[in-house]
Design a protein that fits this description.
- This is Toxin-antitoxin system YwqK family antitoxin.
- The protein has 182 residues and is mainly beta.
- It has a single domain (42-179), classed as Outer Surface Protein A, domain 3.
- It is 0% helix and 60% strand.
- The protein contains no helices and 21 strands.
- It has strands spanning 2-6, 19-24, 30-33, 36-39, 42-43, 46-51, 58-65, 68-69, 71-76, 82-89, 92-100, 106-113, 116-117, 119-124, 130-137, 140-141, 143-148, 154-161, 164-168, 171-172, 175-176.
- It has a 16-stranded mixed sheet that branches. It has a three-stranded antiparallel sheet with strand order 3-4-5, with no helix packed on it. A two-stranded antiparallel ribbon has the order 20-21.
- A hairpin with a 2-residue loop joins strand 15 and strand 16.
- The chain is flat, with a radius of gyration of 21 Å.
- Mean pLDDT is 87; it is low at 1-18 and 178-182.
């Protein structure tokens, strides 16, 4: 089944009130080729959604504009709570990429610009303990970088300055510390 709705404005150069499709993935043939998404053989603009096996609960929703990834993509848990969401603009990852555990606690929070990491990216374990605190500039690590084990012990603690790394990298005698016994 295909339904349509009107968009007020997709981009300044686009036509106002353009019809955009919403489709259930089980009802159409879709494919991606060379970075362009097609539904029933046509370049796709709109949203496509997948459901869990029960056919009623939404698993994920993806949005496209002229076959390119565009807008918010969302994945859900079976209880309908959000598992993760991210954004795309003209086929590139853009803005926040946020994930949650089933209990609603934050799992990770990443920031992207033009498809690469930018700014502070953090991750937490199931207990809510911060396990990664990394900083990026145009996709490259820059500044303070910290990673912890689930038990809270430091795994890596270093600084990237002018492309050089200083500090604890997480290795001991050329062996990864995860192979060591504390």
């Amino acid at each position: 089944m295909i339904t349509t709705f009107s968009c007020q404005q997709i981009e300044q150069e686009e036509v106002v009130n353009l019809k955009v499709a919403t489709v259930d993935a089980k009802d159409v043939k879709f494919k991606s080729s060379k970075g362009v998404f097609y539904v029933n053989g046509q370049v796709f603009s709109g949203e496509i959604y997948w459901t869990y096996r029960n056919g009623t609960d939404t698993l994920r929703v993806k949005r496209y504009w002229k076959g390119l990834k565009e807008g918010q993509w969302t994945r859900y848990y079976p209880d309908r709570s959000i598992q993760e969401y991210r954004f795309f603009h003209k086929n590139k990852k853009e803005g926040e990429y946020v994930g949650f555990y089933p209990n609603g606690e934050m799992k990770f929070e990443y920031h992207l610009t033009h498809g690469v990491y930018e700014g502070n990216n953090r991750a937490w374990n199931k207990d809510g303990r911060l396990i990664s605190d990394m900083n990026y500039v145009v996709g490259s690590e820059e500044g303070a970088q910290k990673v912890w084990y689930d038990n809270g012990k430091i795994k890596s603690n270093y600084v990237i300055k002018n492309g050089r790394r200083y500090g604890l990298l997480g290795t001991k005698n050329c062996i990864n510390v995860t192979d060591s016994i504390f």
